[in-house]
């Protein structure tokens, strides 16, 4: 079972090229923070603006830099099944654990089409597959009935749930498929997903205050709900700031401010964050780092 926090890691750019010096620094920073895996080339990795050459190189460098210290799941999704199968074949050249595959977007398949799409991918790879349901980006919802059917397939191991419908999420959590991980992809629902029996989250926001997210997870697993809630209240205030402008621009700004990456560059059509948001984030991140130094002193 997939459990805990998987980090959908950003792709650092510098002068419009991928900044692998920063990328290595970033991976070395996270591998001992208690996360359960790394996911390059997700939404937060800005996969829509990554070309084929860079796609392959990012996987190669991710494997090189993680040095087997964490499992790697690669974002491989799209709305042309045949093309996705070919892309999965490319990913199999590397020792990755699996893929995170977003529901087909724009051409808006029905539930049978969604089922056949993922069944086709499942039959053409031995890699683990995490389904990614995010209707507010794709325009299509993977309904629970379809998730139950897909969960029966040999290598479909879990769901990244960003359904945006708490009733749908709760219904699935109340009667989860067997040996199937339900991980929230809606960061603000991390605590409630754990409280309802979910296995964890794929959380862009855990690039920041990583230790706190990990502590919430462990406290919830130890049934220390009040202890987890005390920490969660701080994160609950913080998370919306990271999505106030298009993800991952706010996160990249904070990582640059912390010296973890050299530049907060994003690729068009994404744009740098506003000065107003910079000021808001400076306050929060500086306060957190100061507090951390005080605790460590
Ligand atoms: O890149 C991801 O994976 C995630 N993307 C979501 C989004 O930006 O919509 C947020 C979530 O934290 C993980």
From TrEMBL:
SMART domains: DHDPS. Keywords: Amino-acid biosynthesis, Cytoplasm, Diaminopimelate biosynthesis, Lyase, Lysine biosynthesis, Schiff base. Pfam families: DHDPS. Its EC number is 4.3.3.7. GO terms for biological process: diaminopimelate biosynthetic process; lysine biosynthetic process via diaminopimelate. Pathway: Amino-acid biosynthesis; L-lysine biosynthesis via DAP pathway; (S)-tetrahydrodipicolinate from L-aspartate: step 3/4. Gene3D superfamilies: Aldolase class I (3.20.20.70). Homotetramer; dimer of dimers. This is 4-hydroxy-tetrahydrodipicolinate synthase. It comes from Mobilitalea sibirica. The lineage of its organism: Bacteria, Bacillati, Bacillota, Clostridia, Lachnospirales. The gene is dapA.
């Amino acid at each position: 079972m997939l459990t805990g926090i998987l980090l959908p890691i950003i792709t650092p750019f510098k002068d419009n090229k991928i900044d692998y010096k920063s990328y290595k620094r970033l991976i070395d920073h996270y591998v001992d923070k208690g996360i359960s895996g790394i996911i390059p080339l997700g939404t937060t990795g800005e996969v829509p603006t990554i070309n084929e050459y860079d796609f392959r190189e990012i996987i190669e460098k991710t494997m090189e830099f993680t040095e087997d210290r964490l499992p790697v799941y690669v974002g491989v999704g799209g709305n042309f099944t045949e093309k996705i199968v070919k892309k999965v074949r490319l990913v199999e050249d590397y020792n990755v654990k699996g893929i995170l595959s977003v529901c087909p977007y724009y051409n808006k398949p029905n539930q049978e089409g969604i089922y056949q799409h993922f069944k086709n991918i499942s039959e053409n790879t031995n890699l683990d597959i995490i389904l990614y349901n995010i209707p507010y980006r794709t325009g299509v919802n993977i309904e629970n009935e379809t998730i139950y059917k897909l969960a029966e397939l040999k290598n479909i191991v879990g769901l990244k749930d960003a359904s945006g419908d708490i009733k749908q999420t709760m219904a699935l959590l109340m009667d989860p498929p067997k040996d199937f991980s339900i991980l929230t992809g809606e960061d603000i629902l991390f605590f409630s997903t754990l409280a309802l029996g979910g296995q964890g989250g794929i959380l862009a926001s855990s690039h920041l205050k990583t230790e706190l997210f990990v502590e919430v997870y462990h406290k919830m697993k130890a049934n220390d709900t009040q202890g987890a809630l005390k920490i969660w209240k701080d994160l609950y205030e913080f998370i919306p700031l990271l999505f106030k402008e298009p993800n991952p621009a706010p996160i990249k700004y904070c990582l640059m401010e912390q010296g973890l990456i050299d530049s907060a560059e994003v690729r068009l059509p994404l744009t740098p964050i506003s000065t107003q948001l910079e000021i808001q984030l400076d306050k929060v991140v500086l306060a957190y780092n100061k507090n951390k130094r005080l605790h460590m002193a």
